[in-house]
Amino acid sequence: MELQTVMVLFYLYALILGLVVGSFLNVIIYRLPLGIPIAKGRSFCPKCHVLIKWSQNIPIISYLMLRGKCKNCGEPIAVRYPLVEGLTGLLSMVSFYVFGPSLQYLLVFVVMALLVAITFIDFDTMTIPNALVVALMVPAVFSFFVFPEPGFLARLIGIFSISVPMLILTMIIPDAFGGGDIKLMAVAGFLLGWAGSLLATFIALILGGTVASYYILKKRKDKHMPFGPYLCIGIYLSMHFGSAIINWYLGFFGL
Ligand SMILES: [Zn+2]
């Protein structure tokens, strides 16, 4: 086969892997906060509780075929489901674009999947489940063996460089950050090293700050905003484009 054909197939695999895992993430996002066992039983319609057939559980395609409604009771299926699947598929292809067919891609894929789950659960419940932060420790530890950079010391410093200031800030201003945010940035610190996690936090503050200003302008002070999703976006971007962004930034100063 020509190299181009092989690459197209690889991207297709990356997309399908993302879609399938995204479908599983929907289960986690729905069940974990409710305390329903993840592995127990097939998916069911939240309204009529009819089990969803295997053939009706194909990412995105099933949603389109069912025209976004439960086949049994006609209850609308949240757009969230195909959205999470599509997003995971898309992010998987971005990871493949950056890391190519490698162990690094697989590791980054696992991190990305956990970040997607954390993002939506934090958005829904204002809490980051401990289980997901603990799960994130696995690829974080492995990343030390899979990625040559950053070094061990940079990662060790990374554990504390963001989490400790966040903790101190939260002790001064109650609810500045959630416990989940702090734990997330401790794990992300080892994954990205101190420089990478600094960049991740910087991105999160810019994005989160922009959205917060929008809410203030719209006078929607009632709107309580989780910070976890912005941290997750920051971690994802830093993991993929960290060195490129830092070099681009330093370029302004002729460094
Ligand atoms: Zn139903």
In brief, what are we looking at here?
The chain has helices spanning 3-31, 61-65, 80-99, 103-125, 130-146, 152-161, 163-172, 179-217, 228-251.
Molecular structure report:
The chain is mostly helical and 255 residues long. It has 2 domains: 1-101, no CATH class; 102-255, no CATH class. Helix 4 runs antiparallel to helix 5 (130-146), helix 4 crosses helix 9 (228-251) and helix 6 packs across helix 8 (179-217). The protein has 9 helices and no strands. It is globular and about 60 Å long. The longest helix has 39 residues, at 179-217. The relative contact order is 0.10. The structure holds zinc ion. Zinc ion is lined by residues 45, 47-48, 50, 70, 72-73, 75.
How would the blueprint of this fold be written?
Elements: H1 3-31, H2 61-65, H3 80-99, H4 103-125, H5 130-146, H6 152-161, H7 163-172, H8 179-217, H9 228-251
Helix pairs in contact: 1-3, 1-4, 3-4, 4-5, 4-9, 5-8, 6-8, 7-8, 8-9
Bound molecules: zinc ion.
Largest sheet: none
How would you classify the helix and strand content by structural class?
Answer: mainly alpha
Compute the separation of the termini in Å. 44 Å
Bound molecules: zinc ion
Query: Helix tally?
Result: 9
The whole-number mean of residue pLDDT values reads 93
The dominant shape is globular
How much helicity do the residues have? 55-70%
Q: Order of SSEs, N→C?
A: HHHHHHHHH
Strand content: under 5%
Q: What Rg is obtained from the alpha carbons, in whole angstroms? A: 20 Å
Number of domains: 2
Topology, number of strands: 0
Residue ranges: pLDDT <50 for 5 or more in a row? none
| Quaternary structure annotation | single chain
